Amino acid sequence: MGRAPPGPFPDVPFDHRHDLAYLDFNMAGCVMTYLRNDGVPGPGAVEVLRDCLPELRAAVALLARSAEYREGLRVVRGLLAMAELILADGA
Q1: Are 46 and 87 in contact (CB under 8 A)?
Q2: Which of 12, 28, 68, 85 could make an S-S bridge to 72, C-beta 3.0–4.6 Å?
């Protein structure tokens, strides 16, 4: 039985939609490689994840300001948690 395809990107402020979708894209590649490699980040993944952390934290702060973006906040918090877990696993 296959997995359901991902849903559309959640509602986020229009001015930040592209940046958040790009973060999601970068994180997806790092997470997929990490999982496929049995917990070993791919080449350059640690740097990508470290670069994403400040942007993810800023996005959480931005989205937390409005209940309108609750689903976007949930998604970005999940991305942040994955980045932190993968980085901590390699420490």
Answers
A1: yes
A2: 12
* pLDDT (tens digit per residue) in 47-62: 999 999 999 999 999 9
Neighbouring C-beta atoms of residue 43, cutoff 10 Å: 8
Nearest alpha carbon to residue 74 among 11, 30, 13: 11
CB atoms within 10 A of CB 72: 22
Residue of 3, 59, 51 whose CA lies nearest to 29: 51
The answer to whether residues 42 and 34 touch, using CB atoms and an 8 Å cutoff, is yes
Buried b (16+ CB within 10 A) or exposed e, 17-42: eeebeebbebbeebbebbeeeeeebe
Res 4: pLDDT: 53
What CA–CA distance (Å, rounded) separates 40 from 34? 5
